[in-house]
Amino acid sequence: MKTKIPKPKLFACSKSIELATKIAKAFGTELGNSKRLNFSDGEFQVSYEETIRGRRVFIIGSTIPPSDNLMEMLLMIDAAKRASARHITAVIPYFGWARQDRKDKPRVPIAAKLVAKMLQTAGATRIITMDLHADQIQGFFEKPVDHLYASTIFLPYIETLNLDNITIASPDMGGSKRAYAYSKFLNSEVVICYKQRKKANVISHMELIGDVKERNVIIIDDMVDTAGTLTKAAAIMMEKGALSVRAITTHAILSGKAVARINNSKLLELIVTDTIPKNHTSSKIKTVSCAPLFADVMKKVQNNTSISNQFLM
Question: pTM to 2 decimals?
Answer without folding.
Answer: 0.93
